[in-house]
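Hey team,

Sharing the Phosphoinositide phospholipase C run so nobody has to redo it. Sequence (606 residues) first:
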Amino acid sequence: MTTYRVCCFLRRFRAASNEPSEAVGDVFRAYADGGGGLLGEEALRRFLREVQRETDAGADAAAKEVVAFAAEHRLLSKGRGLTAEGFLRWLFSDANAALDPRRGVYQDMGLPLSHYFIYTGHNSYLTGNQLSSGCSERPIVKALHDGVRVIELDLWPNAAKDDVEVLHGRTWTSPVELIRCLEAIKEHAFATSPYPVILTLEDHLNRDLQAKVAKMLKETFGEMLYVSESEHMAEFPSPDELKGKIVISTKAPKECFQTKSSKDAAATEEEEGVWGEEISDDKATARQMSEQSSGKYTADEETAGAGAEDEMEVEAEAEAEKKSRQGTEDNEYRRLIAIQLTRRKHDIEQDLRVDPDKVTRVSLGEKAFEKAIVSHGDHVVRFTQRNLLRIFPRSTRITSSNYNPLMGWRYGVQMVAANMQGHGRKLWLTQGMFRANGGCGYVKKPDALMRSKPLDFDPRAELPVKTRLRVTVYMGDGWRFDFRKTHFDRCSPPDFYARVGVAGVPADTRMEQTRVAMDSWVPAWDHEFGPFPLAMPELALLRVEVHESDNHQKDEFGGQTCLPVWELRPGIRSVRLSDHKGQPLPSVKLLMRFDFFPASDSNSTQ
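Structure output:
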């Protein structure tokens, strides 16, 4: 029994159990040997084939692994088979995870960079908010270890104008020396992935300091630094070709000039709640953008920020480019820029014009991008088939909150920049996307986004269903090991419920909820969701959240995860939950089942 003290009384509750939920027990009994209550090796193979959808050869290999696991943990009863408790222990094990832990990188990595979604950070050096936090190399190191492949540095002259600092310009953020950031990148760039790190530089330097930066880049990175053979590439190299390389991306050299201050935007960010607003299907946003009277694609509110590359004054850019042309042609800083950033002309058709002879990168703020996709969604898809497009958060997100990354991925945008310092549902989606393909930071875009004739990506359109996904949440465990007894409720065990849904194209986006499992550290729900109709499963992310119900105040957070649907292994699988920052909880897991059906399969509704 578990006891909780309430004033001068003791409340007693049933102790946490290691028994399977009723539905999991039914599965075990359906395959266990008659009368013996044990799962023998032949019955195990049948379970692996029929429920886990293993091939005959796969079932044989998996059965041997299960038996070895059971023997190691002493879960075999007299060597004759698995007990119900042993069966549950194996189902919850990491070897039975929803994403195959042995799969690694499996996608074709030999295509141009434009064919991949790339794990992209925004203002990677900030330790907190966009206005007054410190700047450090530590967030860069963490991002690289998390698999981020695009690091952004804002370069500014120091007070004496003789050295280079990294900071969020025209704010109260404290600077960090550029060399500390570069050395950290060199040491940690390939700690978790061998594929290229793209270093985007927001440059506010004069020509002398640009030369100093060029020297620092060469001396720090040496052979790791990728230098293109020509100033303008006809096609981007592939991640395979760039393995172990640092790639520089910025605008062509220019004289430094000032940007508008983002301090004035400090009070304009809306409150979205503790974990951010719920993920929407974006249909309302599309309607709002299309109904605006002007609907013009301009710099408008984006020009308020100092943290984005394209918020420079147009006149100052023109003057800077003129001065740049007056310099020597043999400019070392220019030579190191492998991926040139094209300056925006604030005309959508000009900005997204595809040049058949060279590739480039364009950077847009989230508001400008929202306007662009309302009227020119097909232009965006066509542009990103050859070129790179980066979207960055609006300047008023001073708390380092994020926007819905699917807004960009649906249109083929490779670099959907996220504030890694901010936490919540939008960042969870980004973390979920880049769990795919072995967590290498590069995920191949769906074929539909690379066709010669782009699809109609009207956010209000209903796309045909390709497949259906049925999800069952059986039970959860681990909170009793990772949290103190009174963490969720001082007077009783927690009352957990789960939320499960899909984020993807608008037609696929939905979220549903289980009942509340009262007073239990090992909640059992046995709740079936769906089947969810999926129009684009190759862009769908499974969302899972657990909360503790509280009648008197806001429900408490109990864990979350986000997983790429196209990599889910069918059958009964363990799903490890993470904390609000996306770090895996040591013990907390759910036991879930995933069943895929053809779009027309009548059995999927049974």
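The domain at 461-605 is CATH 2.60.40.150 (Immunoglobulin-like).

Ping me if you want the raw files.
A.
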